[in-house]
Amino acid sequence: DLHSFPTRRSSDLRTCVNMDRYIKNFLKRQPEGVIVQLGCGLETAFNRNDNGRTKWYGVDLPDVIEYRKTLLTESKREGYIAVDAFSDLWLIQIREEIGDAPVLVTASGLFYYFEESKVLGLLKRFLSYGDVEVVFDTVNKSGMSMMRKKWMKKVGHEDAKMFFYVDSAGTLASKIGDNVRVLAEEKKFVDRKSVV
């Protein structure tokens, strides 16, 4: 039961459950699709969601990928790319390897730490790389204020700089481009009881 977990763990667990739900939905609709995890760190979504045929990529900074490799070895269908998530290099490499296959990009816990202009720049570049869906977690402006003032201090990271928030997915989509659609927008902590 999530109510017995400390707040930070239950928040992380909810984020994982929500991301996993989107990944599984994508794989049902696009079984030959590709998953790209931006800022993958020690993320284990591949182990939880692999359908036995999808190609997966983990993208993170070189030192993070090196550490990841000591704990989580790459499978035959999983590749690690040691590069900044905001670089085009991983986009180019993946498109060269997979052609025009549909792609789901996940960015769990990543965008908070970057200015809106940087996040928008990345999201706009996806428009040039074919069929790309993106799922990420964020908070609204008041949630960001609370995170800055209370949450980060509580978890021992009061020096962390946090910038990116979304009050409306529709408004964000319009900033990215005319042909961008919002597939879903939901509150992070709506479904507490379904996660056990």
Describe the overall structure.
The chain has 196 residues and is of the alpha/beta class. It is built from 7 helices and 5 strands. The chain has helices at 7-29, 45-49, 62-71, 89-98, 116-125, 141-154, 169-176, and strands at residues 34-38, 55-60, 78-82, 103-107, 132-136. It has a 5-stranded parallel sheet, with helices on both faces. The radius of gyration is 17 Å and the shape is globular.
The main pleated sheet reads as:
5 strands, parallel
Low-confidence stretches: 1-10, 189-196
**Shape verdict:** globular
Q: What would you report as the Rg, rounded to the nearest angstrom? A: 17 Å
Span from first to last CA?
Answer: 5 Å
Listing every helix as H and every strand as E from the N terminus to the C terminus, the arrangement reads: HEHEHEHEHEHH
Overall pLDDT score: 83
Could you give the count of β-strands? 5
What structural class should be given to the helix and strand makeup? alpha/beta
SS strand fraction: 5-15%
Determine the fraction of residues in helical runs and give it as a percent range: 40-55%
The count of helical stretches stands at 7
Taking strands numbered 1, 2, ... along the chain, how are they ordered across the largest sheet? Answer: 3-2-1-4-5
